[in-house]
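Suppose a colleague, Dr. K., hands you the sequence of a protein chain of 361 amino acids and asks what its three-dimensional shape might be. Before reaching for any lab equipment, you can write down a predicted structure in token form. Begin with the sequence itself:
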Amino acid sequence: MVSRGGGGRSKPVWAERIGKKYQWIGLYRLASRLHDNVNREKRSSFDPALRRTPLILEEERKLDPTLSYTVIAERKDSKCWWLRGKVDLPATKNLDFATWVAKRDDLPSLESLLEPTIHAGQRWTVLTAFPKWSEYRPNMEYNTPYRDTWMHLRGFLVPKTRFSKTIKALNGRNYFNGWLPEGGKWLYAFAGEYPWATACNTEPDWYLGANPKVRDSNLILIHASNQMVIEWEYDATLPSSAYLQVPTKKFFGPRDLWWNGTDGFATPNGKTVFFDPQFRLGKPVALVADIDDLLVRLEKIGCRLVWTLLGEKWVLGGKDHDTPRTIYSQLAWLTDTGAVTVGERRFFEDYNQDQGLAKAE
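The predicted structure, expressed as tokens, is then:
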């Protein structure tokens, strides 16, 4: 076939039909017979023990029937109701790079980012978000320096019994360099299967990135969100790849959350209480939660909620690799009454300064 039709994807119709239909049918039939008659072997000695029997050809599940995905333009700051606060780069365009990087009052406050927003009769708060503001444009001349700033806002669930200890250990620290836990990523599961189906429970969650242990400590922080990887390579009807933000499995403890068919999870009465706006409203990506449901849910699962904010202001694109930059971190936590308490925002001279948990006094 290669000698007659050539390599790659642009083959004659007869070759496309053989390769995309009959060979796949043969592969699926072969996989089914092997599954019924041969014990599956580990791919390597490093693979963990499986929690469930894997699906047949899990890696070849291509069309997600639970998700409808269309590209929606990114919302402007003024229209992004779920993420308040912005960096107004045009307002500081006359500042030199060093002065702009050193400026601190042009960054959104953590209080504004976490302030509940009333929308469609519900009060929403952000659990996870990754806002970014940049002067970069696709038509910029090569080696043109430009200002860029980003934030990573991450929520964490903390067992009630460890809440005070966690606040003392995290407050004022530098969260850079990935020493805090992150969420897991599921590549071969459909959005509507999360978190109950076999595809979401074959391997242990820690193997997919959802390890709640803080590095070099016994502290437990459960990342408030996980990601469903929606890969266009597996579904040519998709316009691009995407990462759907979903609530961490701990939130499903009361067993009353189900996929809403679009972009999030609803209670049995049909009320959506967690969702990722990018699929209905456009980017920026986030996971937002109904705060009234959230407070009740946290009580049921015996957890408290904290947020970490990590950000950076820097200059990119120029020839000089020693351009000015600064990083900063901040902590916030949710009280039992729904109020948000915010710690001091600290700026650091380099990435390694004050990393890790604060030492106990």
